[in-house]
Amino acid sequence: xxxxxxILEIENDPAILDYRCQGTGIPLWPVIxxxxxxxxxxxxxxxxxxxxxxxxxxxLAGTAATLLQATLQNRRNPPQPARALLWAxxxxxxxxxxxxxxRYTSHFIQALNDDTWSIEGIPNLSAGPIRQPHLSxxxxxxxxxxxxxxLAARLRHQPHRTADNLLHFVEERxxxxxxxxxxxxxxxxxxxxxxxxxxxxxxxxxxxxxxxKRVQPTLILNEEGCYGHMAVFNACAHERGxxxxxxxxxxxxRGHDAYNFxxxxxxxxxxAPWLPDALLTYGEWWGNQINAPVSKVVIGNPWRTETxxxxxxxxxxxxxxxxxxxxxxxxxxxxxxxxAPTLPRGLELVFRPHPLERSSLATLDTSQSxxxxxDVDPDIYRSFSNxxxxxxxxxxxxxxxxGFAERIFVWDTNKSRxxxxxxxxxxxxxxxxxxxxxxLSPPVEQQLPTEAIWCSDWKARFQRFTDNPQGQMTx
Length: 475
Hints:
Layout lengths: L3 H5 L20 H17 L14 H17 L7 E5 L4 E4 L2 E4 L3 H6 L4 E5 L14 E3 L1 H17 L5 H18 L5 H32 L3 E4 L8 H9 L4 E4 L15 H4 L11 E4 L2 H4 L7 E4 L3 H6 L11 E5 L5 H11 L8 E5 L5 H4 L11 E2 L5 H4 L3 E6 L3 H5 L6 E5 L2 H6 L6 E3 L2 H8 L11 H4 L4 H10 L1 H4 L3
Parallel strand pairs: 1-4, 1-6, 4-5, 6-7, 7-8, 8-9, 10-11, 10-13, 11-12, 13-14, 14-15
Antiparallel strand pairs: 2-3
Helix pairs in contact: 2-7, 5-7, 6-7, 7-8
């Protein structure tokens, strides 16, 4: 089976960084690398839903409504000076006790005494109106840039020479090292996408510099900071001498392409200018899984610590909670249908879709899944309140379940072995093996260094970091 290390051999040539935006000097590869890598992963691991590429777009009416709300929010709250700038996607925002709250950033904002300005991406309309002060939205500007450059890329008779040359370079290496060549439709999409990304670099750079000039932060905390779409953002912050730290927002592992790089890009910190300076992790275990050249600073998980009041001793669970991944939803529902009738007496099957697939779930035919309860509670910890066992492939929720569910299982598939090669949980290969293991009494004891996964005392740790961020950003 192909591993991420095998795929990363593609970028083990420093010449890959020679293909640059002429006006800014920013290389194109850090921006597009995850998309190219995920095309390979999609094929090798046979995902039913592509991880990138020509995926189904959201309805135009919904997109227009979202952008209108974002534009109105920005008119009410233009960016103002603040000690810290928090950049988030908006994926963490939901309705918690009647208030639209971002679970990733809200406690950081409180710890910084509200001396912050937040920028979020696409607002979650289902979470209710955003009444948070000191918050603007990036979606109007970034959507305009994407529309402008995407249209320009489509109207060109040929892809941009720099983009085309880079893709020829990596496609040749992928073919030689892995026997991979993109299909014709993928190749066309790659060239249009890469051309659009190249054209967008100077436009995004102008937007970010204007934002930093307005806010004048002395510290930036961002979500997905190691992802390719943040490369220009990070470069602009470095140009202004502003320290940047990504806050962990989900699972990171040896199989996660955003946090692991080829050795030639690590040599001499070649990739570092387009990454954040630090990664604020939930615990020591996470930082040990990756090779990204960033300082790993253990902080903890504020949301988990401050909002979770249920512990395993309070739970007498009967649910077998299956966690969706955000894709291949029908595959998971089919697995649940097969598993439900095989469960030991007294256990009930519950499927919890990933936030990214909740809207698509409404369009699927679930009439044959009457034996499966669908859980759409935005708070996963409430979902654990009646869970005896939690099941998944490589979901962060498996780790969230530590301390709550009595049993935690990883579905042993090529996808889980690729994305989560190291984990402390029980394994199963099919629904019958899982049902048999669920019937064992007593359950197999799971040995897990909980403090290494979810460290305590996040407030003191975060205070130490924000008091002297540069002092904790060691090479």
